[in-house]
Amino acid sequence: MTASKPSPAPEDRRRRKALRTRDALATAACDLILERGPAAATVEAIADRADVTRRTFSRHFAGKEDAALDFVRRDGDRVNALLRARPAGEPPLLAYRRAVHAWLADPEDPAWHVRPRMRRLLALADTEPDLFAAYQRIRLDAQAESIRIVADRLGTDAAVDVRPAAVVDAAAGALIAALRLWARAGGDSPAADLAALVERAYDALAAEAAAAAAARDSPATRT
Prior knowledge:
single chain, mainly alpha
């Protein structure tokens, strides 16, 4: 006789239901903003598309831009979780790079860029002020958590030690540069492969840092 599986706890069911509702709202916000433009895509229309009330929308998101860009927040959380799990002895810049690589290469939970129309939304966020502001808030929140993680890895205090912020801002900057180029590129552009483009961005960062260090230490360039 096969034992029946235990029923999910009520808290688990509620959490899964809340996640499904949040996903539906995020999808509706993304779709409507791309279909109608940010000004015409109202919160009421988004809630109606997701088949929930305006109050339900407000329980999940502060505004339509935050809803449409919820994938950025979630994948920022994923990158930070992967960064936190990197080996303790790994240099922080390399750890961040490998965390990003693992996020982009995950076949079981694909990164947002492989989802339909994400390139268009990210490109729009570069030109629409409200979307851009929401994107910046979400990105900076993720970077603040990355800085805390790197400070813990280095055993230091990010409030007095510049290294955690310098590492994270440089690593995140390389990723953002690749994302912006990818978002603006056409489907047949060499930038279409985001993962490869990100690797090139990190290679460029490492090469420039090495060249700058070599020039700084060269007697010919000392002043």
